[in-house]
Each structure stands twice: as C-alpha cells, then as structure tokens.
Amino acid sequence: MYEMDCIDGKKVPPMVIDEDCVLVGEHSGTIRVEAGTLVIQGKNSGTLDVQMGAKVEVLGEQSGSTFIATGAEAIVRGIMSGSTTISSGSSIIVEEKGRLSGSLRNEGTLIIRGVFGGARSGDGEIIIEGNGYIKEPVTRNGMTFYQW
Questions:
Q1: Which residues are within 8 A (CB) of 102 and not within 5 positions of it... i.e. 6 or more apart?
Q2: What is the pTM of this model?
Q3: What does the pLDDT read at residue 96?
C-alpha cells in the first residue's frame, strides 16, 4: 500500500506508472515510476519517485522532492526543482537547456550540460560537460539565494 497525499483537503493515492507514459498538462501529487519511462511534458507539483530500472524524462517541469533509486535514471531537458536524491548506481543528466535547482543529495552521478544551482551533499560524482555549469548563489542584505 502506498502513502496517500493530502490535496485540497482530500486523501489522494499516488499515480503509479508501470509502463511508458507521457504526462501532458498539470498533475499535483506523488508519481511513483516503477517501470518504463515517464515523460513529463507538462508539470508535476509533488514527489517524483523513480524506482530501479525505470526512467524519467523532464521536458516540462517537476516541482517537489525527487528520488532516483539505484539503477534508475532521469534526464532533465526542462526544469526540475526541489530536493533531489540520486542514489548510488543511478544518474541524472541535465541537458544543455535543462535546469536542476534545489538541495541535492548525490551518491550516484550527476552530469551537467545545462545548469545546476543549490546546496549539495554526498559522495557522488559531478561531471560538467560542454556549456554546463554550477550556478553560484547571490548574497544580498545578509540573505543567500539563487537568482534565475
């Protein structure tokens, strides 16, 4: 059984993906990708949980916590924001026009061909290719933030 989300005061089960699927439009809530490839063309506001052997491709926007399990993969061509965990033996590739922002726990591999900005921890590998870069925070009036 899966943990339920509470959206607009109602308990909502997660969307479970077990085959290739394309998300068009907007979705709010948890998406658990157990098999196949999920392509997010629209926007998801909620947790994205990508399990072993599964893959996600973000062309639109993923906003919320993202967990990439061992043996899973994510490709970001759009925007992925929020807390992200890359497990050992898994990877996220941020393509040239892609953006990954938020706190990152990296135990796997992050390949940056686009941009990443946020706090980072973990013993994983970060590879910068082509025009890829890590955005530095801005400090104004004692506040540190990322200006996109």
A1: 80, 81, 82, 83, 84, 118
A2: 0.92
A3: 97
